[in-house]
Each structure stands twice: as C-alpha cells, then as structure tokens.
TrEMBL record:
InterPro entries, A to Z: MrpA_C/MbhD, Nuo/plastoQ_OxRdtase_6_NuoJ
Record key words, sorted: Cell membrane, Membrane, Transmembrane, Transmembrane helix
Membrane-protein topology: Multi-pass membrane protein
Transmembrane region(s): 6-22, 29-46, 52-71
Species the sequence originates in: Leifsonia shinshuensis
The name this protein goes by in its record: Putative MnhB-related membrane protein
Localization in the cell: Cell membrane
Protein's UniProt keywords contain Membrane: yes
One GO cellular component term: plasma membrane
Coiled coil region boundaries: none
Matching Gene3D superfamilies: NADH-ubiquinone/plastoquinone oxidoreductase chain 6, subunit NuoJ
Pfam family membership, one: MbhD
Statement: the UniProt record of this protein carries the keyword Phosphoprotein: no
Length: 85
C-alpha cells in the first residue's frame, strides 16, 4: 500500500508542476481539471472516499468550469472594447 501512495503522490506532484507552468489560462483550466482528477485518485488511495467525492465534484468539474467561463467573459469584454462597443 505504501508504494501505491508514493506513486499517487508523485503523480499529484507532477500534475501540480504542469498546472503551475502552463501559461494560457484556458489550458490552465483544463489542466486544473486533470489535476483535480489526480487528487481524487490520491484521496481514494488514502481511503478517504468522502474527500475524494468532494474533490471530484468541486476540483474536477466546478472550478475549471468557472475559470473557463471567466476567461471567456474577459475575452468577450476585450473584443467588445476593441470593436468600440
């Protein structure tokens, strides 16, 4: 079991590095969703299904969706100002 925990922890560590070093906000939101999935697996390995379910709902689905919607709104706003609206 300890080896499985170490593997899951290394996957989470690698995923965190990818999230930090991703430049484009839209891609960052997608990578954040994948990172949330890695955290879900990690919590399942640690035998915390309640935390894993919360992470799956919030960290994998809701947060990246909110970031993508915010990025889209900012892009629309910039386009509107550029077009003179």
């Amino acid at each position: 079991m300890t080896v499985l925990i170490v593997i899951a922890l290394l996957a989470v560590l690698g995923g965190a590095a990818v999230v930090v070093f991703t430049d484009d906000p839209a891609r960052q939101a997608v990578v954040l969703g994948v990172y949330g999935l890695l955290l879900t697996v990690f919590f399942m390995v640690l035998q915390a299904p309640d935390v894993a379910l919360s992470q799956l709902a919030v960290g994998t689905a809701v947060t990246p969706l909110m970031v993508l919607l915010a990025v889209r709104k900012v892009a629309q706003s910039k386009r509107g100002k550029r077009d003179g609206r």
